[in-house]
Amino acid sequence: MPIVAPGKRPAPRFERSHVLGGKMKRGRKATNADLNVVPMVDMMTMLVIFLLQQFSSTGEVLYMQKDIKLPDAQHGQTIEVAPVIAISPSEIAVVGVKVADLSELEGDSGYLNIPGLEERLRDEKKRWDFIHQQDPDKKWEGTVNIQADKTIPFRIVKRVMFSCGVAGYFSVNLATLDVGSYASTAAREAPGGP
Amino acid sequence: MAGGGAMPEQGGGGRRRKKSLDAVINVVPAIDLLSCCITFLLYTAVWTQISRLQVQQFGSGAPEPPGEQQKALLVTLQVGERGMNLSTTAGLSVDIPVERVGGELHQDLRALGDRLKQLRSDYPEATAVTVSSEDTIAYGELVQVIDTCMGQGLISVSVTGV
User: Fold this and answer.
1) Please, which pLDDT band fits residue A29 given cuts at 50, 70 and 90?
2) How many CB atoms sit inside 10 A of residue B123's CB?
3) Does the interface predicted TM-score (ipTM) exceed 0.85?
4) Interchain contact A161–B (C-beta under 8 A)
5) CA B126 – CA B153 distance, rounded (Å)
6) Which of residues 37-56 of A touch B (CB under 8 A)?
7) B21-52 per-position pLDDT tens digit
8) Candidates B42, B44, B53; nearest CB to A76
9) Alpha-carbon distance A94 to A56, whole Å?
10) pLDDT of residue A65
11) Is pTM, for the whole model, over 0.80?
């Protein structure tokens, strides 16, 4: 015999009837539970507004690297899509490909140009020419982004800029952290920051 | 209150049921849309605000600026370990020594800003400056100097070595 919970157990016919105002009815619980979604919609709306404010149509042109700490600037402009030369304390890379070691540059003959960098930039220029060969209206602007660590001495930056000029890139954009943005503030507040 | 008979003052006769005052809005499409938006925006979010300072390399064979700028006042700013020197073709030459902040030597950017502001008020047409830096100057320090120049309206910056 099954174990049942104690309580009133009227006869089935009596249970189905409306006698006693239907108090004896033991209907099933509703299967549809109401869920209050208003707070969730509020939260999602706030999130969408915040993310829309953060949205950048140009996308991520430069990827932050651990060994490159960018200097701050207050009067910078929006960064453009262009080949990126990353100068870390150990190496120089163009679009992610290493082209020179800084230790070798410090000890070489003293020429201003960096052959590996020039060659890579010329390849980039050839690729640009190939892509835009059917588009005569598009003029070569020769823009390049330099993403250098702030401790790099100017003699290295000067050689990089010279090589850019030799390869046909005359307009140099120095990448900086926009002062007032979250990353810049966090970098300043971090221990060991400027 | 949902349902119920007609109100006596409306004289409805009690047959028609009044519409419920509680409107039910289906928020499921809104949630779907917001979820898609959040997914897209999170995927494409850029968390670091990187800007650029556009400079030209002085004397590298770059295209010459328009003739109007050549006739204008030439401003040269030399940056060295001992400080800066601001000079113009009009005969101005001002030394701005480094300042000591917390035991470290830094370029006096505030004094530079004041000098450039004064220069711009005297020569409003001057918008170009040539920044000449020593080899040992750190890139971060040079960028701050260039940033100060751009902040004072000298937007056409050429960079060269000493």
Assistant:
1) low
2) 15
3) no
4) yes
5) 9
6) 37-38, 40-41, 44-45, 47-48, 51-52, 54-56
7) 777 788 889 899 999 999 998 888 877 778 88
8) B53
9) 24
10) 81
11) no
Find, among B132, B160, B161, B157, the residue nearest to B65 by Cα. Answer: B157
Q: What is the tens place of the pLDDT at every residue in A97-152?
A: 888 888 888 776 667 788 888 899 999 899 988 988 888 888 888 889 999 998 99
Enumerate chain B positions whose Cβ falls within 8 A of a Cβ in A. 27, 30-31, 34-35, 37-38, 41-42, 44-57, 60-63, 133-144, 146-147, 150-151, 159, 161
| Neighbour tally for B48: CB within 10 Å | 18
Give the Cα-Cα-Cα angle B146, B57, B49 (nearest 5 degrees).
Answer: 45
Residue closest to A164 by CA, chosen among A46, A84, A52, A108: A84
Encoded tokens for B14: 């009690």
Tokens 């047959």 locate to: B15
Say if the Cβ atoms of A174 and B53 lie within 8 Å: yes
B-chain residues within 8 Å CB-CB of A141?
none
> Confidence class of residue B77 from pLDDT cuts 50, 70 and 90?
very high
